[in-house]
Task: structure prediction
Amino acid sequence: MKAFFLRLLFVSLTTGIVLPSCSGGGDDPQPAEENLVITTTPVLNGQQEAAAPGPNFPLTVTVTSKMPPQGVRIEVSARPDGNGTTAFFTANQTTSNTTTTFSITNTPSTTVSRVTVTVTSLSKPSNTKTGFYLYSRK
Result:
């Protein structure tokens, strides 16, 4: 009987020492990803830029918030403004650089065109920003 209680005491002490070290907690949880904040030149404000001669139109997209761990995907499309029109320019770029430059080409003359920019976090696809501006080629 005494041996039984000694074994029980040994198992209890061993369990009390070993189990707390097996908590499985380990790493701290990752902080929540910041919402994307971007700036562009020209500004994505839905307004029309003054007509310019072209033929190429520069666009700069800058991620001003903290860059997501896996980077972002930037999608740019340009099409004549209006419903059901086909894009004459598209570009998709995955990057972890804060600033990315595009050159919009093939803009038709004397037509108001809409440039839409969508920036999406690769780490958290629901973290996205979209905007547009209008411009035209003389």
Notes: The mean pLDDT is 87. The first strand starts at residue 38 and ends at 41.
